[in-house]
Structures are given as structure tokens and as C-alpha cells.
Design goal:
The structure holds two protein chains of two kinds. Chain A is mainly alpha-helical. Chain A contains 14 helices and two strands. The longest helix of chain B is centred in the middle third of the chain and has 14 residues. The chains are: A mainly alpha, B alpha/beta. At the A-B interface, helix 10 and helix 11 of A face helix 3, helix 4 and helix 7 of B.
Chain lengths: 409, 288
């Protein structure tokens, strides 16, 4: 019983009880006062609105008191708090009693409250984004105090091991991120190489060739690919695709590690197929039917219509779909952590193990860490690069898609 | 293919004839009735079904080789469905089925020997809403000749494009901006552009599905003028909601009602002396 009586629970209980009471009080007030001939007119708002308005007022005042108390905590003795709460809420009831006349526009005031609450909710999301970006930027700046930004962006050697204690024998650490960017780029390229053609052809089939019934079945099934947890893709890549590629290469007398760019990239390609196929299908469908009819009526075949009219018309949207898929691939973590390896090789060979930005962030931040070391701060710098890159890609993609949509609407 | 090249050569030789734009259009009622010419299409018991539902019932009619034939009737009467029978556009609609016989110059266009893709090069179509491709004006007109390989050289293609635009009465307005997108033109210009696009593959027939319904009165007048000129060269079938338009541009008129061909006669007869009560009710505005 004891833990239910802690101050937070009690405060919340007072707040809720106060608001509910205010609702009942306000509604009752409205009902009783509406009986009186108020200027001979009927009340502006139905009684429930008077109730909602009263509840809002009391809750608002109570939250204000809590906020003030938290800000100035310690300035007043503990027992003052409940007193202040109850006093403030009583003040709320007095205000309600004064305001609620039959002509009072409770409905409009409630509308304003609702608008305010909705705005605050979206504000929370926006502020959180800003907070994350700022923390990324400031921690990255600390990192760049220790490692020059040019070394980070252009260095060819990545070995972030630093000595934790003075007496430890360790490397001094080297933070050239180019091999990581190259690895990310290569895996993304492999993924797009797989997902691009397949996704696009799926989209063409679904929008132009498949019957309505086939489309209704196939499209959701393709989209399931995007819903499979990435960890499942990860062990699929590590335990099935990786060994399969290794065995296949052994048949040609080649030695390919189980963890390789091609294993991670191809599985990631499968994962992003639905991003490309679904979005491309949407943009191809958005091309007006009249264009298809126009082309067919000139004696063009279906595939001529597709390649010469529909595809050029839908191209901007398809590019947008590709860019969104790329930004998804770049940010993907689990598959590459499991299947791409951790060695920061600078290589152009997709059959070697490479590492990506996301993999490095994971390995920098797991295990025993000293939070102020360059090693840990490097994760923020990598995160910032990743964020900026995907943000730019997303903005470009959305601009292209939007511009394209306007053309036909 | 041989046939088409022959038509194309004939087309080139006709180049000298520039349509007389200034010609005043006479109202159909005062014009002489269409002379008895050859029959282009013979329709025998044509029925069209959408998902098993009959949209057109046992239509029998002969479309003359020259002049304009108008198809009129209230919405949903089957006139557009009937129009799309002639270039087999109904084939592109899933679950649509056409029965009966349509003979074009004596040959059944629904027989297995006929390639619908080639048929559509011979029977062009203009739609209700102007639908230029999102390409340049030039590429819009060149689209058909390119896919059918009608122009072996760039010069030939240039010729076809110019010829088609001249014939569609659009050349003077666009000759200095052929590289601009076709969608940048006004609605009336766009509709003439798609007519030029249809003409470019040298069709024998042009189907028009309410071509003026998205145009303002001035653009409509301009289009009707054009139809009047085109009828010298092509067999034209036009679906229209406007009875005044049917009276102005056509020599033959077919009235459809609830999937039936109710009456088919010279336009003058239909509008002055209809035989069927339903036709009379429609043209006098009592139903519709």
C-alpha cells in the first residue's frame, strides 16, 4: 500500500479528481443556470462544454502549480505543496462560478484548448528532433577538438582503439573514416543493384500487367518483406547467404569470407525491394489513364507504352523512390552488424569484409567505455554524418516526389 | 505494312493541299445530305459486355467512307462503348467482351488475322480530355511515326510532323516552339495537338470521343472548323453530348438509348423528322 501513496501518485490523483469534479460542477452549473431566463435567449453552448471548459481550467491551474513547485523546489517546506494545490484549484472553481453564464461561449473556448493541446503534442516531436540534432552536433564538436575534422573525413585508416589508462599499452587511435564511408557506400550499392531492377520490374508488373486480383494479393505480400524484423534478415544473411556465397566461390577455387559486403548487401537489397516496388507502383499508377489510352490508340504495344510514355512520365517519382530506399539502406544496422564484418577495409571488392557507419557506432559504444574518450565521441561524429546524409537524401527525394505529384493534380 | 506505306505515300503527295481555314461553315441542315458513297464499316449484331453485363445490344449499322458520322444519346447509352469497338480499345479493358461482326472495308477487324496494334494505326482516336504526352510538341507528333517506323530519316520525320501540325491547324501557333512541352499549350491547342498526333500515322479513320467537352466555346468552334476540313480526307466518327454540334459537323447521326441503336439516318432527317418517339424526346430536350 505504501508505494501507492508516494507524492507523484497523490498529486496525479488530486489533479484527476479535481478535473473530474470541475467537469461535473461546470456542467451542473450550466444546467441549473440555463433554467433561468437569461436575457430570454438559450444558452450558447450545451452543458457538456461548460463541463469540459471547467475541467480544463482546473487541470491547467494544477499543472501550473506543479511546474512552479518543481522549478522552485526546496524554497518552501514540503507540507505547503498539497495546500497550494488545493488552494489553486479552489481558485479555479471560483473562476468557473464567475464565468459560466448561459451566454458564455464554452464551446469556442474548448475548441481553443484542443487546438493548443494538439500544437503542444507536435511541438514535443519537433523539439525532440532539435534536441537530438543539437546533442549530436555538440558531442561531435568535442570529438573534433581531439581529432581534426579533415583527418576524420579524409583519413584512410580507421582503428579507434585508444589506451584507457596511462600505463596500458595500446594504440594511439586513428580516426580516418573513409574506409567506413566506402564500406557503407559499397553495401548500399550492392543493395540497390539488387533491389532497383527487381523492385522496378515488380512495380511495372503490378501496375500495368497484373490483373486486379493478382495485384491485391501480390502487393501486400511483397510489402511483408519490409515488415520482417531486421535481426531476422541479419541471421539469415550470416547463417544462410554468407555461407552459400562462400561455398559457391570455393567451387571456383576462391576464398571468400562468410562475412562480406555482398552477403550483407544482397540481403539488404531484398529488404528494401518493397520500398522501391511500392513507391514506384504508386507513381506509375498516378500517371493518368488517358496517357495510356492515347498511346495504345496510336497503335503502340503495352511495353512500348510503358517504356516510352509511362516510364518517362513517372521517372521523377521513381528516382524519389530510389533515394528513399538508399537512405533506408544507409541507416540499416542489424544486417550489417551481423553479416558485413567489423574490419575497416578500404577495398573495392564486394567479396571482402567491410564495415559501415552503423556497425562502427555499435562497436564503439558497446563494451567498457570511458565516455569522454575520443573513441566514444567518434560515434557521435559518425552519427552526425549519417544523419546529415540521410536527411539530405530524404529532402531531395521528397521534393522530387512532390514536384512530380503536382504535375498531374 | 505495305498498305500503310502506300497510304503514307499518298499522304505525302497530298501535301500541296492546304486546308482552307477561312471557309465559312455551313449549318448541316442547309447542307446537302451525304451522297451515297462506299461503306467503311459494316456492323452486324455488335454487342459489348462488361463483366458479363450487356452495355450494347445488337447494333447494325453501316458507316460511310466519307463524311462525319455522329453518335449521340444520353450518358450511359453505349455511344462511347460503340466508338471504342472500331479500334478495339475495348480490348484494353479487363473483362470487356465484344461479339458480332465489324467489317472494315469488308474485312472482319475482330478476326484472328487482324493485329489490334496495327488496326489502331489505321483507326486513330481523339479523347474527351486532351492527353498530350509529357514530351515536347515535336515528340508528341513524332511518337506514332517512330514506333511504326514510318520515317527512315530525320528529314522524313520533320516532314511528317510539319504536315500533321499544318493539317491540324496548329503549325502557325507552335512552329517556333516545337521543343516546348505539349502540356504547355492551351486546352484547345492540346486537342489539336493530339489530332495532329493521330494524323501523323496516316490513319483512314479518326474516332473522336466528345472531343470538345473540355473546351471553351471559341476553342470548340475552332475544333469544329477543323473537323469540317478533316472530313475531306478521313472517315470521322464523333461522339458528342451536344446536339447542336452533331447538327453542325455531321452528315449522318446515330441515336443510342440504353444500349440500343434507336435510329440511324442522315443528320438532317434525324433532327427535322425523327421516326422514333425516343429520338424526338431526346432532340427536343424532353429526356436526356
Amino acid at each position: 500500500m505504501q508505494q501507492f501513496l508516494n507524492p507523484e501518485i497523490l498529486t496525479s490523483a488530486i489533479l484527476i479528481i479535481g478535473a473530474v469534479t470541475a467537469f461535473l460542477y461546470g456542467r451542473g452549473l450550466a444546467v441549473s443556470r440555463a433554467q433561468l431566463p437569461a436575457d430570454g435567449a438559450r444558452a450558447h453552448s450545451i452543458p457538456s462544454y461548460h463541463g469540459y471548459f471547467s475541467a480544463w481550467i482546473v487541470a491547467f491551474i494544477a499543472v501550473g502549480v506543479i511546474a512552479l513547485w518543481t522549478t522552485f523546489s526546496g524554497a518552501l517546506p514540503e507540507f505547503m505543496f498539497p495546500a497550494m494545490m488545493l488552494g489553486a484549484m479552489a481558485l479555479g472553481f471560483i473562476i468557473i462560478n464567475r464565468l459560466l453564464t448561459p451566454t458564455f461561449r464554452a464551446r469556442n473556448h474548448v475548441e481553443r484548448f484542443v487546438g493548443g493541446v494538439l500544437m503542444i503534442c507536435s511541438g514535443v516531436a519537433v523539439l525532440t528532433t532539435f534536441g537530438i540534432v543539437l546533442s549530436l552536433v555538440f558531442e561531435s564538436l568535442r570529438f573534433f577538438d581531439q581529432v581534426p575534422i579533415l583527418d576524420f573525413l579524409t583519413g584512410l585508416n580507421w582503428s579507434p582503439q585508444t589506451a584507457l589508462r596511462e600505463d596500458q599499452i595500446g594504440q594511439s587511435g586513428s580516426f580516418g573514416a573513409v574506409p567506413i564511408f566506402a564500406g557503407t557506400f559499397m553495401i548500399t550499392a550492392v543493395a540497390i543493384f539488387i533491389a532497383g531492377p527487381i523492385g522496378l520490374l515488380i512495380a511495372v508488373y503490378l501496375s500495368e500487367y497484373a490483373t486486379k486480383r493478382t495485384r491485391a494479393t501480390v502487393k501486400p505480400m511483397v510489402e511483408i518483406l519490409a515488415g520482417i524484423p531486421t535481426i531476422v534478415y541479419g541471421f539469415f544473411a550470416l547463417l544462410t547467404v554468407g555461407p552459400a556465397i562462400r561455398n559457391f566461390a570455393e567451387g571456383f577455387g576462391l576464398s571468400v569470407p562468410t562475412q562480406s559486403a555482398i552477403a550483407a548487401g544482397s540481403v539488404m537489397g531484398v529488404m528494401i525491394i518493397p520500398f522501391i516496388s511500392s513507391l514506384s507502383d504508386d507513381v506509375i499508377n498516378a500517371v493518368p489513364q488517358t496517357l495510356r489510352d492515347g498511346s495504345l490508340a496510336l497503335g503502340a504495344t503495352k511495353s512500348e507504352t510503358m517504356t516510352k510514355v509511362i516510364f518517362p512520365a513517372a521517372l521523377p517519382g521513381i528516382i524519389g523512390a530510389f533515394l528513399l530506399a538508399v537512405s533506408r539502406a544507409i541507416g540499416e544496422t542489424m544486417i550489417v552488424v551481423m553479416a558485413a564484418g567489423r574490419a575497416a577495409n578500404l577495398t573495392g571488392n564486394p567479396f571482402e569484409a567491410v564495415t559501415t557507419v552503423t556497425v562502427q557506432i555499435v562497436s564503439l559504444l558497446t563494451g567498457d567505455q570511458e565516455f569522454d574518450s575520443a573513441k566514444t565521441l567518434a560515434a557521435f561524429a559518425l552519427g552526425l554524418v549519417l544523419f546529415v546524409f540521410t536527411l539530405v537524401l530524404n529532402i531531395i527525394a521528397l521534393l522530387i516526389v512532390r514536384k512530380y505529384r503536382e504535375r498531374y493534380e | 505494312m505495305v498498305n500503310m506505306n502506300a497510304a503514307h505515300t499518298k499522304y505525302i503527295s497530298d501535301l500541296g493541299l492546304t486546308p482552307n481555314m477561312g471557309e465559312v461553315i455551313e449549318m448541316m441542315a442547309s447542307a446537302p445530305a451525304a451522297e451515297t458513297t462506299q461503306v467503311k464499316f459494316e456492323c452486324r449484331d455488335v454487342e459489348v459486355f462488361y463483366s458479363g453485363k450487356r452495355a450494347l445490344r445488337g447494333v447494325n449499322m453501316d458507316v460511310p467512307d466519307s463524311g462525319v458520322t455522329a453518335l449521340i444519346g444520353p450518358s450511359g447509352c453505349g455511344k462511347s462503348t460503340f466508338l471504342r469497338v472500331f479500334n478495339r480499345m475495348n480490348d484494353t479493358i479487363p473483362n470487356a467482351r465484344v461479339t458480332g461482326q465489324i467489317l472494315m472495308d469488308g474485312q472482319d477487324i475482330y478476326s484472328k488475322d487482324i493485329d489490334p496494334v496495327l488496326l489502331r494505326a489505321r483507326v486513330g482516336m481523339v479523347f474527351q480530355k486532351p492527353n498530350p504526352f509529357p514530351k515536347s510538341i515535336y515528340d508528341n507528333v513524332a511518337y506514332g511515326p517512330r514506333i511504326h517506323g514510318l520515317a527512315p530519316q530525320k528529314k522524313d520525320l520533320d516532314n511528317i510532323v510539319e504536315r500533321s501540325l499544318v493539317r491540324a491547324g496548329l503549325w502557325d501557333e507552335v512552329k517556333d516552339r516545337l521543343k516546348e512541352p505539349g502540356t504547355s499549350l492551351s486546352g484547345g491547342q492540346q486537342q489539336r495537338l493530339v489530332i495532329a498526333r493521330a494524323i501523323a500515322v496516316s490513319p483512314e479513320v479518326i474516332l473522336m470521343d466528345e472531343p470538345a467537352s473540355a473546351l471553351d466555346p471559341i476553342a470548340t468552334a475552332r475544333l469544329e472548323e477543323l473537323i469540317d476540313e478533316l472530313k475531306e480526307k478521313y472517315c470521322i466518327l464523333i461522339v458528342t453530348h451536344s446536339m447542336a454540334q452533331a447538327a453542325r459537323v455531321s452528315q449522318k447521326t446515330a441515336f443510342f438509348h440504353l444500349g440500343d441503336l434507336v435510329e440511324y439516318d442522315d443528320t438532317q432527317t434525324i433532327f427535322t423528322n425523327p421516326k422514333d418517339q425516343r429520338t424526338q424526346d431526346y432532340i427536343t430536350g424532353r429526356t436526356g
